Amino acid sequence: MSGGGTEVVPLDLARMFLGDFSPLFLAEIALRTVLIFGWLLLLLRWMGKRGLAQLSPLELAIVIGLGSAAGDPMFYPEVPLAHAMLVLALVVGMQRLLAWLVIRSEVVETFVEGAPVELVRDGVMSLAALERSNLSREDLFERLRVAGVRQLGEVQRAYFEQDGNLSVFVCPQDAPPGLPVVPPWDLEPPPLVTGKGCESLACLGCGTVRRGEGQLPSPCPHCGGTAWTPATTDPLGGGAGRGGESRLGLGGALGGSPGTAPG
Asked: Is the pTM higher than 0.85?
């Protein structure tokens, strides 16, 4: 029996492929598929790289589109096979077209895939870039800790990549002091400096390091913050100084390869 109470005739090829619709209805399905796929792609781009994890907007749109189009005709006799086959072919065709355009057009690639965002330069965070990437300071610190970073002075560059991963380039030699990212601040907040006596201070807002010079350099010249903590070369003690580059995503490290920061 079908959902409307009408008896279903098994192996009725006309019903299986076209249902009770006019063949012209296939043109409407094609238009609906193109519009919904484009709207889905726009929404996924608006959702941002953090929400997409390790899938690009185009890849996630393909997964959603193919899954939705392939599921219903497998179970519901009211859904004609020709309609689902047309939707599947259109989704794959649009993916092939967009992939071709991405290779040949920088504008299309930036729109579909996004662009890398520099989050840290020479131990100082870009608060505007973090906000634009929909990341909090704690999100950045978590990813840096997974990469083995203990304090921001070790980081020459950190890029939030198009696929939602973080690429970290650290100092190849002994790192200058910086804002500690370990232990996690939720477990052990960094001490606030309220008086004199610290040689190097790190801004709690962006990580800018300034010498104490007998007084607190408030406000921070980079972000305007007024909270400072002692800058350190190794908050956990022991030797510091590493070289290399690593890439990690929301789930953890994805591997690493040697490298140095660009000039």
From this structure: no
